Amino acid sequence: MPTLSIPPQSLLTLGVILFCLGLFGALTRRNIIIVLVCVELMLNAANINLVAFSRLGASPNLDGQVFALFTITVAAAEIAVGLALLLAFFRLRQSSEVKDMNQNKL
Amino acid sequence: MAAYAWIIPLLPLVGYIFLLLLGKKAPEGFVAGVSTILVLIGLGLSLGVFSSLAGTDGAVTYTWKWLSIGSHNIDVGFQVTHLNALMLVVVSLVSTLVFLFSLGYMHKDERFSVFYQYLNLFVFSMLALVISPNLLQMYIFWEMVGLCSYLLVGFWYFKPEAALAAKKSFIVTRIGDVGLFIAIILLFASTGSFDFNTIFQAAASGKIALGFISGSGLITLTAILAFIGAVGKSAQFPLHVWLPDAMEGPTPVSALIHAATMVAAGVYLVARLYPLFELSQPALTVVAWIGGVTALLASLMALTQRDIKRVIAYSTVSQLGYMMMALGVGGYVYGVFHLMTHAFFKALLFLAAGSIIHAIDTQDLFDMGGLRKKMPITFWTFLAGALALSGIVPFAGFWSKDDILTATLKSGHPVLYLFGLIAAFCTAFYIFRVFFLTFAGKPRDEKRYEHAHEGSWVMTLPLIVLAVLATIAGFFNSPLNGNALEKYLLRDAGDAVVAGIPTTSPAYLLGHTYPANVGLMALSVAVGLAGIGLAAWRYANKNREITVPTGEGNFLYMLSYRKFYLDEIYYAIVVAPGKVLAKISDFVDRYIIDGIVVVVSRLVYVIGLGLKYTQTGQLQTYGAATMLGLFVILAIALFRQGGVF
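ok -> structure tokens follow
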């Protein structure tokens, strides 16, 4: 099977781009759903790093891939909790905007 | 028997706790009865202890280890020496009678039970002080005695004078206590022990020194510092000012303070530390002169006072001066002997004065007069006390005062002897001035006179018992019975040998003894009679009108009446600068210290005011700030890694 060789720098760059996009979105988008999506984006950027190093790192092994699987699981659970919170919040305030979630301050 | 001496102070303590639990509403007779019976049992035990020590040597000591600090052990326990045994008897005897008397005097007082609580605590403190085997324990009870006298002098605290007098007595004695405390620390630092005997032995064998001061210098220093404590407690010049003011307390308290519990502690302290004083001639000289000057000054002040209790109070100061003088000139036995006789006749005079005040409800001598018919028991007992105080043979004061005067002259202090003699003349004059103004002549206030009556048996019985004692107590140490008390007391010391008694006691000395001298006796009796005669001529003379003296233009009269202006002088040199100092520190505290605090608090408030706008509740703002912070930290870490800074 021909091996596709991608230099690790490209993979890491992809990870950085995805992470920055996610971060930017999480900090600037007004809709909570988009913010959640952006959080997922950041998690996946991390996953790319994990997988890349599990194959191309100094001591390649399966740990990184296993960890990536865990992250995906946790991300799924997180999104479930996040959406439930969002639903509760929407019922309470009739809004899905981040700026309306400011009632926790003193 | 002496092994049970610890029970004696415990009895009033039990009484105190019992009354405390009983509460304020307990019936008067029950409260007083329980207290009196407990002290009476204590008196019985004291007499047992006293007699059990007769014919034996040295001290009975029981101690237990209390604290271990480094290599030092601090003990508690009790010690019975011949001196302590005598004090136990005197204190419990006077206390018993005062307890009984108070039942009549304090009748219908709102805080009757509280009064007895304080009295019990007072007597407990004094008895425990007396049998303390070491300086630390003694100091604890010393302070408790001071506390109780504060509580009792200020018992009628709603009277502003009483509250002031209580404060004054506490503060003035405290000045002296500082001296005593320093002395105790120095003795502990130099000998490593609080124990009396250890200290005496170290001092006598010269094994006492601190780095910066020689052995004899240290002994002199500590003796004088301890004496300052005694000066405060025993109201010696120049710290005597609290005692006359302490008259604001109830009269039985005055009797207790003056005769048994409070002021006796100072003389007792010097007597207890006598082996230490004996090693330092300068310290003894200081004691003698302070005593002599106090005896003279106080007797002069007493001449013109108008308040019956104040006259007797100055008389106490004066008599305590005699005791100190006796101790100072080496007449240890005579000082202690006078302490005993004085306790009896001074308690008698105070209780008699209390009986008079109770009957006519005034303390001003010029409102009295003619009470002889109305109050015969008080009259006769007061007469016995006055004769004893004046030193007329054969009353108690004669024997002890004459011993003191003899010792003073024979030990080579003619000036002090002269002081003592003048004081004796004044003493006889002022006490008979009181006597004649109170009992002789016509009543000067008819309304009060009509009202006057003798108290019930609880008030007259103590008077009669004390009058008997004031008459015969002198014979305990008269040449007629071979100076029995002298031989008894000297068994505490090595110089029992001098008195011809074989002994195994520690080898320190307790002063000197002087045989009675008939010529000197006759002289002092003559002086006393002259004083009485002058008082009779002035105040019991039908041809002389008794008017309230104004003292105008009479400098000497005013000098005495205003107590040599000592209160004014103290006000000017101590109180007024103290107030200025208080003003300054008030200013510093109010404006500088407080100012700093206010500025700091304002600063924090302003910072908070600014920062509160950063808390918006906007998660995305927080997130951005967090990221920014993370970047900054990362940048710093990277730059440091790269060696930029």
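Residues 495-507 of chain B have pLDDT under 50 and may be disordered.
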